[in-house]
Design goal:
The protein contains 18 helices and 14 strands. By secondary structure, the chain is of the alpha+beta class.
């Protein structure tokens, strides 16, 4: 029965692991896969990930299966009873992992994916932390260190509520249970579930305040000690003392709680509550230094005395010796001991003091100060981690590009604000430049790739992007939050085409980092629109509407004439109103009506040329090809095409010259500023020397 906790026991113990596995090894064993990869080198000694003994795999799978079932029950109870909010990224991943080269530059970036074994271990740690929190709070109600996650106010969910409304899903954020239910409904009914669900979870996470360490006797704890996200009443950090100082403090509090005399009977009684504990098997000696064995202690008498002790007496002796080492040891006459004895006498004489106060390892003021320091450092470390992730992304995209799905979360007059779940980042997608020129890929508008003018330097990094000076980018229905959209219009011959973007639309963006016009700092990652939808669609979109004179003429002729009297040119054209001009003209098939024989003058010219060029049984045919009916060679550019190509080349050269001149001006400005600073510093030094000289003379 894994649904109820039969008993709880806290005490000192020795854990003997038969296998120190990684998450991937445990995941492979659960899914009947080989736990180790033969192509990977073994890890260093005394670290997780060593090859697993094949004889242990059946037993390990049995234990892991039990733990997995237990974790599922614990997770379900937290969600249904406590209202836990699931904000995990699942197989999408949000934490990025970078592969670096020998110079420390990123060469590969992948998102860490979560497996069920991660949730299993997390649930077991949450269970342990929750029981430890209740234990230390019961013994030290005013000086315990707990982890508090405050309830989120309703007004902090404005962005999330707007996103829900745009997706047509009802939202309720009055409690953590209501929020969790809203997220589940959105996940079940949402379109493009993986991308939209990532957006909802990201907005929910940003709306919540960060969890804080609190002292149970401080003012911060007066608002409550529950954990909003995990859905439990009391929670702390106990399971990772090797990497968090908060866990070290909690370990000291728990050690003080389980060693109290009034709790001894309870601890002994808990050993006999339906639990069969067999004797421990012999454990091999460890090669690492052991404090219990007395390694590292100075003085032979101390080590000999510690060898005579066993069990709890040995650990008490070591704790006593360690506490003595932490005192200010300049008094050889034992004054510290006298002071301690005097302080103990004063404590015993004080009325209203309970016996528990003598064993409290920390006071309320001490734990409060510790919590403030840990919270500050924790906040700084998170900001540093996010800054490092953004920096390494920019370094990676400086030499690489990637196309990823994104969801529209905001509309602007010159573009979109999107969220990219793959890299857990949000940023702007500009569709027009500062001068108002629309710069977009023609395929998004349903136009041929040759449409438009060459882009400016800021958009040239996108392959195929074109500039439309006569285009426009406007927000429609701006007052109606639910129905507003961004409309992009570009000219197409005698008419125009438009494309609309709404909230929660899924688009494809290209991620890159252009450092051509940057001197010092690396700019942030830029996002550029590639297509509307998850996959690029070359051609006309649903919103594009185009009408041409050719189609109108074809409709008129087809209404008054029969197919046999229709002009032959139109027989070759399969007219479709939904198609654009480019597709219509590209479908025209030219079938010239030529005789099988060439004209006489051409035959005579070819025969004469063959006779002249025939040498040593080698025949050289007439070079080139024939041109019939006044058709031009398609490889030959017209005058307008040549002029357009020359204009584009001149514009590109002008842009390059502008960039070079700007960089030169910037360098010149920096040099002038440096010279000015040097002159000012020299003048200040001379003025200071003169003032010092005058004061010295006046003093004489």
């Amino acid at each position: 029965d894994l649904k109820t906790v039969k008993s709880t026991w806290f005490g000192r113990s020795i854990i003997h692991n038969v296998a120190a596995m990684t998450y991937q090894q445990a995941h492979n064993i659960l899914h009947n896969k080989p736990p180790d990869d033969p192509n990977q080198p073994p890890p260093p000694p005394l670290t997780a990930g060593s090859p697993v003994d094949t004889k242990l795999i059946p037993s390990l799978k049995k234990d892991l299966t039990i733990l997995t079932k237990l974790a599922r029950i614990l997770r379900k109870n937290r969600e249904e009873i406590g209202g836990a909010v699931d904000l995990s990224s699942g197989d999408r991943g949000s934490e990025l992992k970078f592969s670096l080269d020998e110079n420390g530059l990123p060469t590969k970036v992948v998102a860490k994916t979560e497996m069920e074994i991660h949730h299993t271990i997390a649930e077991l740690m949450i269970m342990a932390n929750g029981h430890v929190a209740s234990k230390i709070h019961g013994h030290f109600p005013s000086s315990s260190l707990l982890r508090n996650h405050r309830t989120v106010e309703q007004n902090r969910f404005e962005d999330l509520e707007s996103a829900f409304k745009a997706g047509g899903v009802s939202f309720d954020g009055r409690s953590n249970m209501a929020l969790a239910e809203s997220l589940r409904q959105a996940k079940a009914s949402g379109k493009d579930g993986a991308v939209i669900d990532s957006l909802f979870q990201s907005l929910a996470t940003r709306a919540m305040s960060e969890a804080q360490y609190v002292c149970t006797g401080s003012k911060e704890a007066s608002v409550g000690l529950s954990h909003y996200g995990l859905g439990i009443e009391k929670y702390t950090h106990f399971t990772s003392p090797i990497r968090r100082y908060a866990d070290v403090v909690v370990h000291r509090l728990l050690l003080a709680a389980v060693t109290k005399k009034d709790d001894a009977d309870v601890r002994m009684a808990s050993l006999d509550v339906g639990v069969n504990r067999n004797a421990l098997e012999s454990i091999p000696d460890s090669a690492a230094m052991s404090v219990l064995a007395g390694d590292g202690l100075e003085g032979g008498e101390q080590k000999e005395q510690s060898d005579e002790l066993e069990g709890d007496d040995l650990l008490d002796f070591l704790l006593e010796e360690t506490s003595q080492l932490g005192l200010d040891g300049d008094d050889d006459d034992g004054s510290n001991k006298l002071d301690e004895t005097k302080a103990d006498d004063e404590t015993k004489e004080t009325d209203g003091k309970s016996s528990h106060a003598e064993a409290d390892p920390y006071s309320t003021a001490e734990v409060t100060k510790i919590c403030e320091g840990i919270n500050h450092q924790n906040r700084i470390s998170k900001l540093c981690s996010m800054s490092c992730q953004r920096l390494f992304l920019s370094l990676y995209f400086r030499g690489n590009t990637d196309v990823a799905p994104a969801v529209v979360i905001g509309l602007r007059a010159n573009g979109l604000l999107v969220y990219v779940p793959k890299y857990d980042m949000k940023g702007p997608v500009f569709l027009s430049d500062k001068d108002g020129n629309v710069q977009i890929h023609p395929s998004v508008m349903g136009l041929p790739s040759k449409a438009g003018l060459p882009p400016t330097s800021g958009f040239a990094i996108v392959d195929g992007c074109k500039r439309f000076p006569d285009g426009s980018c406007d927000i429609c229905n701006a007052d109606d939050e639910a129905n507003k959209y961004l409309q992009v219009i570009v000219p197409a011959g005698s008419s125009s085409v438009h494309c609309d973007f709404r909230l929660l639309d899924v688009i494809e963006v290209q991620l890159s980092c252009d450092t051509s016009d940057v001197v010092a700092r690396i700019p942030p990652t830029r996002l550029h629109l590639i297509s509307k939808g998850k996959k690029p669609k070359i051609g006309r979109t649903n919103e594009t509407k185009i009408t041409t004179k050719l189609v109108e003429q074809r409709q008129k002729e087809s209404s008054v004439t029969n197919d046999e009297h229709t002009h032959p040119m139109y027989k070759a054209i399969d007219v479709d109103i939904s198609r654009n001009v480019y597709h219509i003209f590209s479908s025209i098939q030219i079938q010239p009506n030529l005789d099988d024989t060439l004209p006489r003058f051409l035959q005579q010219q070819q025969q004469n040329h063959t006779k002249k060029t025939q040498k040593q049984k080698r025949v050289q045919t007439m070079p080139g090809r024939f041109v019939f009916g006044g058709f031009r060679n398609p490889d030959t550019h017209t005058a307008s095409q040549e002029a357009a190509a020359n204009a584009a080349a001149e514009a590109a050269a002008q842009r390059r010259n502008t960039v070079v001149q700007g960089q030169a001006s910037s360098r010149e400005y920096d040099v002038v500023r440096r010279i000015e600073k040097d002159i000012m510093s020299r003048m200040q030094r001379l003025a200071a020397e003169k003032r010092h000289t005058r004061r010295a003379k006046a003093g004489k």
